[in-house]
């Protein structure tokens, strides 16, 4: 199975995506949101969007960073799982509503936003919003080109 288009080999795609990648690095390197939380958010949005490549990438990166297998296995059912903190749960709910915009005419509800604001300051909320928007962009790009999952090696795009 091959992708329809190699986004790293195509000069036009690379011009655009290098900026999206750079934005992700800015957050990754400067956020005070725990790295584990950011990875959980990326994994959950990728699960919702059916982006196998991003699920593969972020579960592997999270594992290398020390995330436990049980937590990774339970991301998809985080509401029923007892292994996530209240702050992580708020971030996961924000990620879900921010990813499923079409499911609600109003987008992210005030209740979900207010819950996230109990756990994160404005800079952290800005990081979470940015990570959610960026992972959704990556998910959509990978889904369009049918980027296959399974071959990602941690740090491959570093």
From TrEMBL:
Q: Name one Pfam family in it.
A: CMD
* Source domain of life: Bacteria
Note the SUPFAM superfamilies from the entry. Answer: AhpD-like (SSF69118)
Question: Which residue intervals define the domain Carboxymuconolactone decarboxylase-like in the entry?
Answer: 24-96
What is the protein name given in its UniProt record? Carboxymuconolactone decarboxylase family protein
The species this protein belongs to is Streptomyces zaomyceticus
Q: What is the lineage of its organism?
A: Bacteria, Bacillati, Actinomycetota, Actinomycetes, Kitasatosporales
